[in-house]
Design goal:
Distance between the termini: 32 Å
Helix content: 40-55%
Strand order of the largest sheet: 1-2-3-4-7-8-9-12
Order of helices and strands: EHEHEHEEEHEHEHHEEEHEH
Number of helices: 9
CATH class: Alpha Beta
Structural class: alpha/beta
């Protein structure tokens, strides 16, 4: 029997702005089965009680959840925040959440910098980050996943992004949260083949997948915003990843510019339809 805490199918990033519309839809439909799993940022829910805490509890009792951290700063110079990790562990345990991920970036240096900054693609950085990932896994009592991030400069680069990512995964012995939009954004901004990047990943380490929208600043400059619909090249790259590795749990991220809930549910449904097509249940030219 499968673990009900394990994500599957098509999910949605849960933001507080969506709680009301989701509750209204569940009340109207009698269920909210069109979303297979949710993802939350633990920093936004640690210590939250009252009405919001009850709303989260109601959802975690009905759905699989995953957590995606915002502020652990895996690549940073300061010691890992052991207090934060203890709080995250309590949240995961309290809600029966098995999976936790963090960005492969850094965001602190004697205080929070409120941005996800790129880690230099060097062998030294691989060793530094991998040691911190192993420490985080020990403190959390579970494997974690690291997310490939969007970046707009590569200071001190000595390795290709794909080689750096794969080296961290191997040395840390951790999993991958594959952000398909970030692969597409980086491929445009840094001039590489997105399909070849996906092909070079260790598929056995992919825990789940993100898709999201971005802003087109210029033909050769995309900005990862999570504030727009998912575009066709990202859907096509997701299909390519399914063909390469098999269908994996996949969720839609939206952080602002929230459309009506039906539009977000349509994107979740598009994920599910693509999963069915690529699993051979429905023929789709993108998965032929």
């Amino acid at each position: 029997m499968s673990d009900p805490r394990t994500p599957h199918g098509a999910g949605l990033g849960l933001r507080r702005a969506l709680l009301g519309p989701l509750q209204a839809r569940a009340d109207a439909d009698g269920d909210d089965a069109r979303i297979d799993f949710f993802e939350i940022a633990p920093e936004n829910w640690i210590g939250v009680g009252g009405r919001l805490g009850r709303a989260l509890r109601e959802l975690t009792e009905r759905h699989a959840f995953v957590c995606h951290g915002l502020s652990l700063s895996l690549g940073g110079p300061a010691p890992l925040d052991a207090t934060l990790l203890a709080q995250v562990r309590r949240l995961l345990d309290a809600h029966g959440i098995a999976l936790y991920s963090e960005h492969l970036s850094w965001c602190t240096d004697d205080g929070h910098l409120y941005d996800l900054l790129p880690i230099p693609f060097t062998a030294e950085a691989v060793r530094h980050v991998a040691a911190r990932v192993r420490q985080a896994q020990d403190l959390l009592g579970r494997r974690i996943a690291v997310e490939n991030v969007s970046y707009y400069a590569a200071p001190g680069q000595q390795m290709r992004e794909i080689d750096f990512l794969n080296a961290v995964l191997a040395e840390a012995d951790c999993d991958l949260l594959l952000d398909i939009n970030n692969v597409h954004v980086n491929s445009i901004n840094h001039g590489y083949d997105a399909h070849a990047f996906v092909d070079a990943l260790p598929g056995e380490r992919i825990a789940w997948i993100h898709v999201a929208g971005h802003h087109v600043e210029a033909p050769d400059l995309l900005i990862d915003t999570h504030g727009a619909p998912v575009v066709e090249p990202v859907w096509a790259l997701l299909a390519h990843a399914y063909r390469r590795f098999g269908v994996r749990p996949t969720l839609v991220e939206r952080d602002f510019n929230f459309p009506p809930l039906d539009e977000l549910l349509a994107e979740v449904a598009q994920v599910r339809a693509l999963q069915a097509a690529c699993a051979g249940e429905v023929r789709d030219v993108r998965c032929a």
